[in-house]
Amino acid sequence: MTHFLLNGEPVDIDVEEDTPLLWVLRDNIGLTGTKFGCGIGLCGACSVHLDGETVRSCQTPVGDVSGKQVTTIEGLTREDLHPVQQAWVEGNVPQCGYCQSGQIMSAAALLAENPDPSDADIDLAMSGNICRCGTYGRIRSAIHRAAELMSEQTDVVQHFDPDDPLVRRVS
Amino acid sequence: MSGVEITRRKFLVGSTTAVGGLALGISFTGQKVEALPNVTDGALQPNAWLQIRPDNKIVFQLDKTEMGQGVIASMPAILAEELEVDPRDMVVELAPVHGDFQDPMQMTGGSSSTRTRWDVLRETGAKARTMLIAAAAAKWEVPLDQCVAREGRIHLTGSDRSATYGELANDAAKLPIPKEVSFKNPADYRYVGKPLRRVDSIAKSTGTAEFGLDVRVPDALTAVVLRNPHFGGPIDSFDTTEAEEMPGVTNILQISAGIAVVADTYWHARKAADKVTVAWNKGPLEHVSSDWIRSTWEEQAKQEGKSVRSDGEGMQGLDLAADVTTAVYEVPYLAHATMEPMNTTARVTPDSIEVWSPNQGPQIVQSLVADALDVPLDQVTVYSTLMGGGFGRRGIPDYAVDPVEISKALGQPVKVVWSREDDMRHDYYRPATYNLLKAGVDDRGKVQTWTHRIVAPSIMATLIPTMSVMAPQWMPDWLTTLLVRGAGSLMKTRDASSHEGAGDHPYQIDNIEVEHVYFDPGIPLGFWRSVGHSQNAFVIESFIDELAYKAKEDPYEFRRRLLAGNDRLLTVLNLAAEKAAWGTVKDGISEGIAIHESFGSVVAEVAEVSVDNNKIKVERVVCVVDCGLAVNPDIVKAQMESGIVFGLTAALKGEININEGSVVESNFHDYKMLRMNESPKIEVYIIPHDDKPTGVGEPGTPPIAPAVANAVYAATGQRIRRLPLRLS
Predict the structure, then answer these.
(1) What is the ipTM score, two decimals?
(2) What integer best gives the mean pLDDT of chain B?
(3) How far apart are CA B346 and CA B369, in angstroms?
(4) Is A135 touching B (CB cutoff 8 A)?
């Protein structure tokens, strides 16, 4: 039994301790915002925060997160969009969108540590995240914009609608 | 007229160029007229695209599938413009298979979505608007011209009176569909031509967008499939004793594609699969390796090919030339490497077959599944999901069959998930090709002769046998086989995707001969973003650059001279040179230019490159596109950025190698991707137009490889004629 905090809520999970956190999140808990891309920690699609640091959840055995705090893309969004998400929407960043959960988690961790990153800082922090649609330029701009939003502490954020019609549910 | 009769009427649907010519001319007639999607009482539903419900919900069925290219935003906007409603107020649903959407096949590719849907979506919007106005006029007993449509309501001019579309839908649905309608003046457009935000951005920025891999069907098991890495090879033997004891495993069974390991979760299935021991037979392609291919096509290039273009004296023109330049260009196989690996979920019961699949061709999914289970097409329901990238890979949805076979065998829903390794080693690859070019340039710089012998396989010839299941069900098997065999051998020399962009290059040269020598090593082939253009633009635009230096002329000016009179291309080329300030680069930077027409659009790109320790870095790309009317300029811009990064990744890194008939590369450590720190600054300029839209998803890709290769030559004097670009 592994116990940890997931997006602020306590979780007890009874799986083999070497099971990657990615598959515990997706298959056992049912949080599918964190994506599977390569399974060897090279694409960043599975990025989550472990005690505030970006980790690749496909390379993190669930046993290693015992007693720690895990934040996923679902945890980044509470009532309102996180400034990084707000900047992503404003800048029309996502194309296919599959890598963007991981991109956003990496960007949010960067900004938490460095509120005004340079292009070089961004390159360093973000080069572990692959985007096949080539949204890199927009991601770079959106991170600068998110930094601005965070410094303004603006409360003009777009409301998150969980009933977004694009979310096709299986009944 | 009853609602049913209205639903049977079809608006005119323009013809399509499907992915690289996938439209085979096999028709799908004989299908019965189906009910429209989600039929609701009292709704105005002039065809399968649009439904205006009495509760004022306006539903748009997106028949083209969304893989990142933005049809989810641009297509609804086209209809909404004529309907006079904000497209963001419409509900977009990913459409089921439906007769209205087939032209002749329901699929997404060939950068064709916006251009082939432009007419029908405008017409649908305008007809529905006209009917709503007529319904309001009848209800209020006023002349038609006193009723005006605006922002989802019909207003009575000179009064406060208005009604929502929903309130009028029931009455409007009872009216005949007008034959003639008037369209808006483009000057009055409020949504088309405007950079509207994508409607899927929030879902895709919050982790709530549902991709194929995220589909959760109750009680579904997860399966992984072990496939023979050697193409076409069977299984000699396998042992599952140890695997069966692994936690969570429910079943291990042999299916058409290989050995399926089924468990409660992906991780349990994957760990158990590692314990299966298999002796793979090396199969019919054991002799095929990258080295074998390279030595063989050199031999193949010595023979004459099938002529695909012959102008003037053709090959004999070389005799007229005093000074002949000869060059050999080679490109490798490439994998698509979509971020979301292949997957599909299926639920097969005695009564129904349901498939949830990220795909570029729901009708192809339906056909493949119906064929695998030997059931009629209408028993198979396909739910298309969002795709984590497509790039042509998901136009061949072979991956949809595995879960169907397993679910049928187990009587339980099953999701099949491919690993990255499965995905990379079982792709349908961009063909590797060999190109022998010769050109004669006289002492005044005039190109007298151009000959190009392309040694390449044919995508269509390899695909047609598997496409036989797409033939109409009324066609007897022997006829299908005959047609497919005939078409397959015909395709070997007539498949445009082998020479598109090369046979029809735009440069004015008196004597041109372009030939195709058919040579197929047997590796599975598919449509890779921009298809034949992806390699042929590199070959043509690099060789033209060589000839410019031969003629001792600036590469931009040389192209201008050979394109004289071609106003559309010149406009694009000139603007690219102007925006890049061609001829004035900073120290340490070199520039290269290329232009290419594909999918109805023209794109020119100028690449600014630095070279340090034989390492190529692309610093900046200036891109100019003529894509007709830009329905959503920001999406056009995004697609150019995307196409450039995609093409640049291939130009600098992309190479799939073959050994013993199997793919050597397996994941992102040996099939590398361009990353943030290597990504250039990209500027995109769009030539303004009021005309119809042309392709956008692919045309940004072809010019980048030659633009970079040409800049590398300018920087180093090394002409690299083989992709990926490597300096020695």
Answers:
(1) 0.93
(2) 91
(3) 10
(4) yes
- Domain with A39 in it: 2-75
Among B209, B638, B681, select the one facing A167 at the smallest CB separation.
B209
CB interface of A with B, residues 37-76, below 8 Å: 37-40, 42-43, 45, 72-74, 76
For residues B468 and B486, what is the distance between their CA atoms, to the nearest angstrom? 12
In a domain, A169, yes or no: no
Q: At residue B471, does pLDDT exceed 70?
A: no
pLDDT band at B11 (very low <50, low <70, confident <90, very high): very low
Q: Which residues of chain A make contact with B210, given a CB cutoff of 8 A?
A: 32, 166-169
pLDDT-based confidence at residue B318 (cuts at 50, 70, 90): confident
Indicate which CATH number applies to the domain containing A108.
1.10.150.120
Residues A13 and A48 occupy one common structural domain: yes
Last residue of a domain, one of A75, A92, A118: A75
The alpha carbon dihedral of B550, B552, B556, B561 has a sign of: negative
Q: Which of A75, A105, A134 is the last residue of a domain?
A: A75
Task: Give the alpha-carbon dihedral of B110, B530, B395, B693, to 10 degrees.
Answer: -30
Given CB atoms, is A114 within the 8 Å cutoff of chain B? no
Q: What is the pLDDT of residue A168?
A: 36
Q: Out of B201, B215, B389, whose CB is closest to A89?
A: B201
The residues, any chain, with a CB within 8 Å of residue B691's CB and separated by 6 or more, are B628, B629
Residue B389 with chain A: CB contacts under 8 Å: 96, 98, 132-133
Say yes or no: A8 and A62 in one domain: yes
Mutate: best of B204, B645, B696, partner A, most A CBs <10 A? B204
B205 contact residues in A (CB cutoff 8 A): 81, 85, 88-89, 93-94, 97, 100, 104
Domain shared by A87 and A147, yes or no? yes
Q: Three-state SS string across B117-158, please? A: HHHHHHHHHHHHHHHHHHHHHHHHCCCHHHEEEECCEEEECC
Domains and CATH numbers, chain B: 50-206 (3.30.365.10), 212-283+336-425 (3.30.365.10), 290-334+430-458+495-716 (3.30.365.10)
Nearest residue to B647 (alpha-carbon basis) of B501, B534, B483: B534
